[in-house]
Design goal:
The complex is a heterodimer of chains A (134) and B (837). Chain A has 134 residues and is of the alpha+beta class. Helices cover 24% and strands 34% of the residues of chain A. Chain A has helices at 3-25, 32-40; strands at residues 27-30, 47-53, 65-66, 73-79, 84-89, 102-110, 113-122. In chain A, strands 2-4-5-7-6 form a five-stranded mixed β-barrel. The longest helix of chain A is centred in the first third of the chain and has 23 residues, at 3-25. In chain A, 24% of the residues are buried. Chain B is globular and about 115 Å long. The chains are: A alpha+beta (134), B alpha+beta (837). Chains A and B meet through helix 1, strand 1, strand 2, strand 6 and strand 7 of A and helix 15 and strand 3 of B. Strand 1 of chain A pairs antiparallel with strand 3 (407-408) of chain B.
C-alpha cells in the first residue's frame, strides 16, 4: 500500500470520527415528558427545552421565586405540550427575563426539579414592531 | 418635510450599481477573449464603482442628517449619536453590512482593474459577477411577486404600519430608536470594516483560481494569487481577533471566544484559506499541491458564502446570540451560494483531466510532505467545527425531505470544541516547528536530527522551568505547552539564521512563532481562567442543586466590604461618566430635558477639588450608560477600581459590559450580573418614630445621624406657597461608612393643612419624614423607614497570561505582511520580465 493511501485512510477515519462525535455529543430539543423519561432511564445527558413562562388569566407572569441571597431563582415553565415544570437556575435572575416571549432551557432533571445550566431568552424582536413609540 | 430626493437618489445608485455590474460581467467576459472590449469594460466598472460609492454616501447622509423618515436612520441611529457611532450604525443593519462588503469588493476590483496583468479580464469577470449578487441583496425591487433584495432606502412608513401614517403620511419621528448598545464600542467602529475586508478579499484568490482553470493556465494563476491569499489571510485573521477582543471587552460571557456559530462560521474559512496558502507555496514542485490549492481556495470562498447564509438566513435561530434576523433574503443567498458552488464544481470537473497530476510519492523529507501534513490538520480542524455548527442546517435538510430531526448543538460548546481542537493544535504546533527546517535545505534523517537536536533540548529546559513555575497539570495542556514552546524555539532558530542571510524570507517563521504564542496565551488564559467570585459561604438553596453546580457570583451591598479570594471588594455605588470630570455618583445628578445634559444637585468634588458647583450643567456622551464603582484591595496592598457598565436601552433592554484590570501577568475581569431594577419602587418598612431635639444625635438604620438645624423655606418644589403658608426643612447629617450624607425632609403648612415631604437616602436605604414639630421642647418627631440597601451581583474572573495571546496575534500579522511582501516582489519581478504567463 502506498503511503498516500495510508494517509488518506487516516484522514477519512478522522473525518468519520468527527461526524460520529458530533452525533454523539449533540443535544436535542425535547419536551419535559421526554426529558423526564430520559432521566428515569438513567440518561443524564443535557437537553434543550423550548417553552414560555407561566402566566395567569390576566397575563401576569407567575411562579418566579428568588432565593433570599438573590443568587439563584426558580420559575415555572410551560413547554410546547403545555406541561408545567419548575426550573431552577444557579444564576441571578436576568433583567430581561420577564420580557421574554420564549425561553430555551438547557439542562437536565435532578430529582423532581429541572436544573438549568443555561437559559436562552428570546426577546421581542424589533423587526416585528408595528407601532412607533412616540 | 420628508426628504424624498436623497432616498430616490440612493435607490437610483443601487439600480445603477446592479445594472453596471451585470454589464461589467458581460463585457469583462468578452474582454477575456477579445482585448477590444477592455476599455469599455473598464469604464463600465468605473461607473459601477461610482454607483456603489453613491449608495454609501446617500445612506450615510440619511443617518448623519437624522432623516428619521427613513427606516434605516430611525431604526439604527438617533439624534445624539456621535459621528463615529453614526459610522457603526451603518453596519448595524443587514443591508448596511452588505454595503460594506460591496464596498470592499468594488475597491479590490478597482485595484485589479487598474493593474496591467494579463489576468485582469478573467478575474474581473468573477469579481463583477459577485457584485451582481451583492448589489441584488440591497436592490429592494419586486419582480413577478418575488422580492429581490432589501433596500436600505425604505421610508419608515413603508416598513412600520403605524396608524399615525394614515392620519399624517408626512409624519417624521422626533428621534431614532438608537444604535444597538453592544455596537457602541470603539472596536465596533474598526472591527467590522477589517473583518469585511478579509471577507471580501477571499474572492480575489478564488477569482484567480477560476480564471486559471477556465483559461487553461492551471499553474500560472498561483503566483499572482499568492500575495492576495496572504493579504486575505492576515486581514481575516486580524478581523477575527479584533472581534474576539471586542467580545472580551463588551460582551459578558466572560471571555474572548465562545464557539458561537457566528464565530465558527468565520473561523472555518480562515483555516481553509491558510491551508490553501500553504499548498500554494508548494505548487511548483508538486501537482497534487496545485490541485489541493485549487480546491482549498474555492472551498474558502464557498465557505464564506455559506457563513453569510448561516448568519443571515435565520436558520441558526436560537442557537446563536448574534445572528441577524431573516430579512427574506435566504432564498437569494442560497441561490448565490449554490450557483458559485455548482459552477465551481462543474468547471473543475470539466477540466480536471487537464490539470497536471502525478503518481509520485512525496518523501517524508521534502517540504511538500510537511506542508501537506499541516494543511491536512488545518482542514480537519475546520471540518471538526463546521459539522456541529451546521446542526440547524442538517435539521432543515432532514425536514425538507419530510423527516424530523430535533438535534441541538452540544450543551457545553466550549468544552466540546476544545477537546478536539486542542489535540489538533498540538499537531499543528509540532508541524509548524519542524516543517520550517525543510524550507531552506535538502534534508535527510541525519541532517534533520542535527537541526532539531538543539531546539529539542532547549524546549525541554524551558518547558520544565515553566512547568515548575506554573501549575500545568493536565496532560493535554502539558503537551500543547511543550509543542508550542518547541515551535517558538525551532522557528526562532530559523529566524536567527535568516537574519544573517535574507530577512525577507522570515515571514513564515515569524508567523509560526506568533501562532505558538497565541496557543500558549489561549492555553493559560482560557484553560486556567479562574472564577474568583465563587461563593464558598454556601448557597441558600444548596440542597436543591446537584453538587457540581457552582455559585459563581458574589452579592455586594453598598459600602459593605466583602472578601473574595485575596481581594477585599467594596461596592461604592452607581456612577455616570461625565465629560471632563470622570465618574460622578448618579445620586448627585439630576436629569434635564436634554438627554445628554445633567445638572449637579450638589457640589461635586474629586480628590478634594471642586469640579462642579451645585446647579452646573454637565454633559455625558451616553446617558443610557451607568457604571458601578467597585474598589479592589489586594492583601498585598495593591488597590484598583473597576467600573463595570450597564446600559439600559429601550429596545435591547439591559446590557452589561465588563471592566478589566490589566497587568502584565493577568487580567482581572469583572462584570455585573444584575442589580436592583431601577423601575421598581423600593419597599419600605413600617414607620418607627423618634423625637429628637435640635442639635442632638440619633440613629437611622444603625447609622449615627445629627439633627443639625432647621431652615425655613420660601419655595418648595412642586408646592406653590400662599402668603400665610409656612414651610421648614430639617437638616440631618448622616455619618456613613465613607462619606457623610445629608437628608432634608420638609414640613409644609398650606391652607392650614400639614403636608409632609419625606427625603430618602439611598446610600443607607432610609426614608425620613417629619411627623410633627414640637415647639414646647424645641424638638422634631421623625418617622423612620428602612428599605433594601443598594446591591449588585458580580462575577469576577482572572485570566492569566492573556497578553501572550495578543502578542502572538501581533507577530502573526507582522509575519504575514513580511511573507506577502516577498511574494508580491516575486510576482512583480516575473511580470516585469514578461514571464508571468
Amino acid at each position: 500500500m502506498k503511503k498516500s493511501h495510508v494517509f488518506g485512510i487516516i484522514v477519512i477515519a478522522a473525518a468519520i470520527g468527527v461526524i460520529v462525535s458530533t452525533a454523539g455529543d449533540a443535544s436535542s430539543y425535547v419536551t419535559f415528558d421526554e426529558a423526564r423519561a430520559l432521566a428515569d432511564k438513567g440518561n443524564a445527558s443535557k437537553i434543550h427545552i423550548v417553552g414560555t413562562l407561566k402566566k395567569d388569566e390576566v397575563d401576569q407572569i407567575v411562579g418566579i421565586e428568588r432565593s433570599p441571597d438573590l443568587l439563584s431563582f426558580k420559575f415555572i415553565m410551560v413547554d410546547e405540550n403545555e406541561n408545567e415544570q419548575t426550573v431552577l437556575y444557579a444564576q441571578p435572575i436576568p433583567q430581561d427575563f420577564e420580557r421574554s416571549e420564549q425561553v430555551v432551557v438547557v439542562g437536565a432533571y435532578h430529582k423532581d426539579t429541572f436544573i438549568a445550566e443555561k437559559i436562552l431568552l428570546k426577546c421581542p424582536s424589533k423587526y416585528q414592531e408595528n407601532e412607533l413609540s412616540v | 418635510m420628508v426628504h424624498y430626493f436623497i432616498g430616490q437618489l440612493g435607490h437610483f445608485f443601487v439600480v445603477l450599481a446592479f445594472v453596471s455590474s451585470l454589464v461589467a460581467t458581460y463585457s469583462y467576459y468578452n474582454a477575456s477573449k477579445k482585448a477590444t472590449w477592455e476599455t469599455f469594460s473598464k469604464y463600465t466598472y468605473y461607473i459601477h464603482f461610482i454607483a456603489v460609492i453613491g449608495i454609501l454616501v446617500s445612506l450615510f447622509l440619511i443617518i448623519n442628517r437624522h432623516y428619521f423618515e427613513y427606516h434605516y436612520a430611525w431604526n439604527y441611529s438617533s439624534k445624539f449619536l456621535p459621528i463615529y457611532y453614526q459610522i457603526s450604525s451603518f453596519w448595524n443593519g443587514q443591508e448596511g453590512s452588505f454595503l460594506l462588503w460591496m464596498f470592499w469588493n468594488v475597491v479590490l476590483g478597482l485595484v485589479i482593474a487598474r493593474t496591467r496583468s494579463i489576468w485582469k479580464s478573467a478575474v474581473m469577470t468573477v469579481m463583477s459577477l459577485s457584485q451582481v449578487f451583492l448589489t441584488s441583496m440591497v436592490l429592494g425591487v419586486i419582480l413577478f411577486d418575488i422580492k429581490i433584495g432589501s433596500s436600505p432606502f425604505l421610508l419608515l412608513r413603508d416598513v412600520v404600519p403605524d396608524n399615525i401614517f394614515k392620519i399624517n403620511p408626512e409624519f417624521i419621528p422626533e428621534d431614532g430608536s438608537g444604535l444597538n448598545p453592544l455596537l457602541q464600542n470603539y472596536w465596533m467602529v474598526i472591527h467590522p470594516p477589517v473583518l469585511f475586508l478579509g471577507f471580501a478579499s477571499t474572492i480575489v484568490p478564488f477569482a484567480y483560481a477560476i480564471a486559471g482553470v477556465w483559461q487553461g493556465k492551471y499553474k500560472e494563476w498561483v503566483r499572482p494569487a499568492l500575495p492576495w491569499t496572504q493579504f486575505s489571510a492576515v486581514t481575516l485573521g486580524v478581523g477575527i481577533l479584533m472581534g474576539a477582543y471586542w467580545a472580551y471587552e463588551t460582551l459578558n460571557f466572560g471571555g474572548y471566544w465562545n464557539w458561537d456559530p457566528v464565530e465558527n462560521a468565520i473561523y472555518v474559512p480562515w483555516l481553509t484559506l491558510v491551508a490553501g496558502m500553504h499548498t500554494m507555496i508548494a505548487y511548483k514542485k508538486n501537482p497534487t499541491a496545485l490541485k489541493a490549492s485549487l480546491i482549498l481556495i474555492s472551498v474558502t470562498f464557498i465557505l464564506i458564502l455559506y457563513s453569510t447564509f448561516l448568519t443571515r438566513s435565520g436558520v441558526l435561530g436560537e442557537t446563536s446570540v448574534h445572528s441577524f434576523t431573516d430579512l427574506g433574503l435566504s432564498g437569494q443567498l442560497l441561490i448565490y451560494l449554490l450557483l458559485f458552488f455548482v459552477g465551481t464544481i462543474v468547471l473543475f470537473a470539466w477540466n480536471w483531466k487537464h490539470i497536471p497530476s502525478t503518481d509520485e510519492e512525496v518523501s517524508a523529507y521534502s517540504r511538500e510532505f510537511w506542508i501537506f501534513m499541516g494543511a491536512t490538520v488545518l482542514c480537519l480542524m475546520a471540518f471538526q467545527v463546521i459539522i456541529p455548527t451546521s446542526i440547524p442546517v442538517w435539521n432543515e435538510i432532514v425536514g425538507f425531505f419530510g423527516g424530523n430531526s430535533n438535534l441541538a448543538p452540544p450543551v457545553d460548546q466550549v468544552g466540546f470544541y476544545t477537546q478536539y481542537q486542542l489535540w489538533l493544535a498540538i499537531l499543528l504546533a509540532l508541524l509548524s516547528g519542524t516543517g520550517q527546517f525543510f524550507f531552506w535545505r535538502k534534508m535527510d534523517p541525519s541532517k534533520l536530527m542535527a537541526e532539531i537536536k538543539l531546539p529539542l533540548v532547549v524546549t525541554l529546559i524551558v518547558a520544565s522551568v515553566i512547568m515548575l513555575l506554573s501549575k500545568v497539570d493536565e496532560i493535554a495542556y502539558l503537551l500543547l505547552l511543550v509543542a508550542s514552546i518547541y515551535s517558538v524555539i525551532a522557528n526562532t532558530k530559523i529566524l536567527l539564521r535568516l537574519k544573517k542571510t535574507n530577512l525577507k524570507l522570515s515571514g513564515g517563521s515569524i508567523t509560526h512563532i506568533g501562532v505558538a504564542f497565541m496557543l500558549i496565551g489561549i492555553l493559560f488564559s482560557s484553560g486556567y481562567s479562574k472564577i474568583l467570585s465563587v461563593n464558598y459561604t454556601g448557597m441558600i438553596w444548596k440542597k436543591d442543586f446537584p453538587d457540581e453546580v457552582n455559585q459563581n457570583n458574589l452579592l455586594l451591598f453598598l459600602n459593605e466590604p466583602r472578601q473574595m479570594m485575596d481581594y477585599s471588594l467594596l461596592y461604592k455605588g452607581m456612577r455616570k461618566k461625565v465629560e471632563g470630570i470622570g465618574y460622578v455618583p448618579t445620586s448627585m445628578l439630576n436629569a434635564t430635558q436634554h438627554p445628554l445634559k445633567l445638572v449637579a444637585n450638589q457640589t461635586i468634588k474629586t480628590g478634594g477639588e471642586i469640579v462642579a458647583e451645585k446647579g452646573d450643567t454637565l454633559e455625558v456622551t451616553n446617558n443610557e450608560n451607568s457604571y458601578f464603582e467597585v474598589v479592589y484591595q489586594k492583601a498585598s496592598g495593591r488597590t484598583f477600581t473597576l467600573f463595570p457598565r450597564v446600559q439600559m436601552n429601550n429596545q435591547m433592554g439591559v446590557v452589561y459590559s465588563p471592566d478589566i484590570n490589566r497587568t502584565a501577568l493577568a487580567d482581572l475581569y469583572t462584570h455585573v450580573r444584575t442589580f436592583p431594577d431601577p423601575e421598581q419602587e423600593m419597599e419600605w418598612s413600617e414607620v418607627s418614630e423618634v423625637t429628637v431635639p435640635i442639635g442632638e444625635r440619633f440613629f437611622i438604620n444603625d447609622y449615627v445621624a445629627t439633627f443639625t438645624g432647621v431652615e425655613s423655606m420660601d419655595q418648595v418644589p412642586n408646592v406653590p406657597l400662599g402668603e400665610k403658608d409656612v414651610a421648614v426643612k430639617a437638616l440631618i447629617e448622616i455619618a456613613g461608612e465613607f462619606d457623610n450624607y445629608s437628608v432634608e425632609p420638609i414640613y409644609v403648612i398650606k391652607d392650614q393643612m400639614a403636608g409632609r415631604l419625606p427625603d430618602i437616602s439611598n446610600e443607607i436605604a432610609a426614608k425620613i419624614t417629619i411627623q410633627s414639630i414640637n415647639p414646647e421642647n424645641n424638638s422634631f418627631t421623625f418617622g423612620l423607614q428602612s428599605g433594601q440597601k443598594d446591591w449588585i451581583i458580580i462575577e469576577a474572573v482572572e485570566k492569566p497570561y492573556i497578553n501572550i495571546l495578543w502578542i502572538g496575534t501581533l507577530l502573526l500579522a507582522i509575519g504575514f505582511i513580511v511573507a506577502m511582501n516577498r511574494r508580491y516582489d516575486e510576482f512583480k519581478k516575473m511580470r516585469d520580465k514578461g514571464l508571468e504567463a
